[in-house]
Amino acid sequence: MPSRALDWIPGELAALEARGLRRRLEPMGTAQGPVIGLSGHALVNLCSNDYLGLAADRRVERAAAEAARRYGAGAGAARLVVGDLLLHHELEERLARMKGTPSALLFSSGYHVNAGVVGALVGPGDAVFSDEWNHASIIDGCRLSRADVHVFRHRDVDGLASLLAASRARRKLVVTDAVFGMDGDAAPLVEIVELCERHGAMLYLDEAHSTGVLGATGSGLAEAMGVTDRVDVLMGTLGKALGSFGAFVAGSRELTDWLTCRARTFVFTTALPPASCGAAIAALDILATEPERRARLDVLSARMKAGLEALGFPMKAVVAPIFPVVLGEESRALEASRRLRERGFHVKAIRPPTVPAGTSRLRVSLTASHTPDQVDGFLAALKDVL
Ligand SMILES: *Cc1c(COP(=O)(O)O)cnc(C)c1O
Questions:
Q1: What does pTM read for this prediction?
Q2: pLDDT digits (tens, 9 = 90+) for 98-130
Q3: Does one domain contain both 276 and 351?
Q4: Measured CA angle at 241 (ends 235, 242), to 5 deg
Q5: Is there a single domain that holds both residue 345 and residue 269?
Q6: Rounded to the nearest whole angstrom, what is the distance from the C-alpha of residue 108 to the centroid of ligand 1?
Q7: What is the CA(140)–ligand 1 centre distance, in A?
Q8: Residue 132 sits in a domain of what CATH number?
Q9: Is residue 131 in contact with ligand 1, taking CB distance under 6 Å?
């Protein structure tokens, strides 16, 4: 007889269902791309983070396969044990060059970076200052650090300034998303850099959605704002625009040396698999040699923004290929998502706790592989559904 100790779960799941908050998996039968196969239907995919369309690029796939053939399917151990490959160092050098920093250190995912790096920089007696809309992994990293956590209002520079001025903490760390993943807007980075310098605070920037997308060479928001050498900790992921899997911290050699010793989510986990590293290196080559991908994405994004604005959705703050169609109630977002799907468009409803209560939405995202016709078709379908 199985234990009855889990008998509370069905009731809780039913309660989630009743509140429109139940989440379910739905497997795809195809690779990531502008059109995917879901439950036997071909749907235009408007919710991936594969912004440059590299996840299923033939060259990236081939590089993944070649790395696996040469180094095996798995790294077999943590980096500090016997999982450290020449390939990891090659990728770290490439990432540091792309970010314009002296050094970079790979992690298994963006979640690992945020969950472990905050706690390697601050602890009890220190203070961390975090934008209220930061990614869940940053929230968890702040909690795990056991530093005092001060949450400031979204993009509120004055609020952050008063919190910093009032703090007597030994060390201070300001942490913010560069681009906020559910809204597509950007942190007021230059103002935050200046505040951190004035108050002697470390600055930690999460470039998960901006790496490969923003800046003259696609390095990210810090490049776009010209402040790369004034950000202490630059975090980026390989699983979004770079089409692979994994993440990294870029910064000074001292920083990556310290994290190698003290970031628990680096020390106590298996190294990235070779295929992910090979894919990421190929993606970095494409990022450097095919700027037209980002140009195409910009043109498509402008078209999407104009169309959504015409439907009454404010897009002024949007700087990345992420477009929030805020509908309010969970049921409204779910219904819109369902009816769009009947018209051939896959756009997930985003609900609490991913976004604040009462702001459930369709989070529409684009990639360089979409076509203008797909954007226009979606806008027409959305108008119809609304
Ligand atoms: C996706 C994301 C992460 C997590 O990265 P993974 O590599 O998917 O674990 C962290 N921060 C932000 C802002 C993200 O959007």
A1: 0.97
A2: 999 999 999 999 999 999 999 999 999 999 999
A3: no
A4: 80
A5: no
A6: 11
A7: 12
A8: 3.40.640.10
A9: no
